[in-house]
Amino acid sequence: MTLVAGVDSSTQSCKVVVRDIETGAIVRTGRAPHPVGTEVDPDLWWDALLAAIADAGGLADVAAVSIGGQQHGMVALDAGGRVIRDALLWNDTRSAQAALDLIDEVGAAEFAERTGSVPVASFTLTKLRWLADAEPANAARVAAVALPHDWLTWRLRGFGPHNPILTELTTDRSDASGTSYFNPVTNEYDYDLVDRALRRGPFGNSGDRSRIILPKVLNPGDVAGRLDGSPEFSKETLVGAGAGDNAGAALGLGASTGDVVISIGTSGTVFAVTDTPSRDVTGTVAGFADAAGGYLPLVATLNAARVLDAIARLLAVDHDALGTLALEAEPGAGGAVLHPYFEGERTPNLPNATATLSGLTLASTSRENLARAAIEGMLCGLADGLDAVLAQGVTASRLLLVGGSAQNPAVSAIAAQVFDVPVVVPEPAEYVALGAAVQAAWALTGERPTWPITVTAEPAVDVRPLIREQYAIREQYSR
Known about the structure:
Blueprint: E1 3-9, E2 13-20, E3 26-33, E4 39-40, H1 42-55, E5 62-69, E6 75-77, E7 87-88, H2 96-106, H3 108-115, H4 124-134, H5 136-141, E8 144-146, H6 148-156, E9 170-172, H7 173-176, E10 182-183, E11 188-189, H8 191-197, E12 216-218, E13 223-226, E14 238-240, E15 243-244, H9 245-252, E16 259-264, E17 268-272, E18 286-289, E19 295-301, H10 305-315, H11 319-327, E20 337-339, E21 356-358, H12 367-390, E22 398-402, H13 409-418, E23 423-426, H14 431-445, E24 455-457, H15 465-475
Parallel strand pairs: 1-5, 5-14, 5-15, 9-12, 16-22, 22-23
Antiparallel strand pairs: 1-2, 2-3, 4-7, 6-8, 10-11, 13-14, 16-17, 17-19, 18-19, 20-21, 23-24
């Protein structure tokens, strides 16, 4: 049996999945926690990776491994391969003003043309500008910039402060496209934007421009190198290119052109696999690349599963009971509409908004209607994100609904009434790690494997226009 391994180094934890290359069957798994916070010492990721590998039984019998990781995090290295400061994660918002400043300097349309996206606080470029302004001494030391999966891949191959060959850093298109200094169409870095962010060369007072080392961008099935030959590893094990988390999930789901993935987690994401790039000058859609040679336009929402948490808590029920209540109400919840902007919202861009519940009458004010309004409101917010993706010329033939809340029968049934595209609910799984294993197999054999996924629900399309119509009408009064 030939084995390959995939890693998901996410915000909360590191997961390792070992799969049989012939069938895709999961042979064993491992996990280790990550520290809480929006800035993290990358050495703690390395420790967690080693712990998760050990928990999965090691890699000595594994032919290839690849790492998927949280996007956007800034790992700044000096000339000796040392981490300069704790990495700022995607959810660190201290660079929000830096994003506005860079947009003001370059222009939203210019950013969209050059990088496919308009930067927000999540993106790496804005964190570099924050570093230049807040910690200029640290900014002056930056010799290379990597993303979390880039840095872990580099370390796994035996590099680091003990062997600081910065030119051995590698990445892939999907993760590079989330930096805001990479063009996913030309597959080239925009070094002028990096210099501008760090206020180097003609964009600052730090002397002559000195080109920062950025990871080499590998193709989907490329080999980054081999493991370093430590006792728990094997020098024969290949290391794949790696990927950003959403692109890794798309690989794990077997998504292809025409598929849209809607992930209902703490936050929500809507992303499509497509052959054509997107350039949304409004910044609503991020024009990312995927991990298979195409593109992955993506919309993020702040309010997703936590909407159901809040209403379930209010009604003193668990999620299963919330779903049962919701299915006892009619579509449209008797006119009750929840706009679930409990913590502001990113799509639409309403950072200071709060949630509103409207349309209540004496007759409609019931536990059942409130439960259904929560699910409808959450899904309508994601449907707005889908509309934004489709407006970029994307065609959707299937929606893959993932995340813990997707397994609730009420969520999948109501999704079939909100979305006018067939809904498929795959079984719960670590799809980023599974996708990284797909990439490892691709690097080993030269071909992308087509492993099956198990579907737990496939509700019939049952579109009820009333749900989105009343949501759109009432939204005018919630802003």
